[in-house]
Amino acid sequence: MVALNIIKSGFDIGERMKQEEYSSFEKFLEKFNKDATSLNKIEYSTEYFGNGIFVRSVCDFDLAISDWMSLYGSLPEWHDNVIKELRKRGIPVICMLCGLHQALRQKIGEKTLINKRPCNVYHLASRDIEGNKYYQENLDKKDKKELEKLLDEYSCIFYFYPKTR
Questions:
Q1: CB 161, CB 48: distance < 8 Å
Q2: 3-class DSSP assignment, residue 89
Q3: Would you state the pLDDT for residue 58?
Q4: Residue 141, exposed/middle/buried by CB under 10 A (0-12, 13-18, 19+)?
Q5: Kind and range of the H or E element at 21?
Q6: Which of 49, 73, 102, 121, CA to CA, is 20 to 30 A from 56?
């Protein structure tokens, strides 16, 4: 139940974001590179890798979890259950806040119109502080292998690109 509440909270927050319109993906990227899009509001230290793929060097939530651990010594008992529930839903999370973050991304994708089309958003892969890697379900072997290489350098990888239909 906590996992669903986290996801719902992300959708609720994202619903309050303003709609943005761009004539092309290139125009969106121009604004993104100037930190001037709704996506930038939740994606600090994110860069565009290519082909709709965005990468983050450091996950702010991973750092927050580390801070929690240094203060309290362990995560709440229910944290692992939330992680398991989110992963069952196909989200490659490293902490419970990833579910919130992905729900926000998804709402921003719906509200970002590029050439009058909303964007598809998929959280593809994550790497935690210990180096464990987690992947979106249903990836083919070739894509997973490419993401695995990227995760050696980045902590979070997601897809954000206008729908084709």
A1: no
A2: coil
A3: 80
A4: exposed
A5: strand 20-22
A6: 73
Per-residue pLDDT at 1: 64
> What's the CA gap between 121 and 96, in Å, rounded?
19
Would you give the end-to-end CA distance of the chain in angstroms?
34
The pLDDT value recorded for residue 37 is: 94
Query: What pLDDT does 68 receive?
Result: 81
Positive or negative: CA dihedral 115, 163, 140, 56: positive
CA distance 153 to 113: 30
Please give the C-alpha separations between residue 25 and each of 15, 50, 116, 117, 119, in angstroms, as whole numbers: 22, 11, 11, 11, 10
Q: What averages of pLDDT result for each successive group of 10 residues across the chain (165 residues)? A: 79 92 98 93 89 88 79 84 82 81 92 97 88 89 94 94 90
Closest to 2 measured CA to CA, from 121, 92, 84: 84
Identity of the amino acid at 96:
M
At 56, is the secondary structure helix, strand, or coil? strand
Nearest to 157 by CA among 135, 126, 120, 133: 126
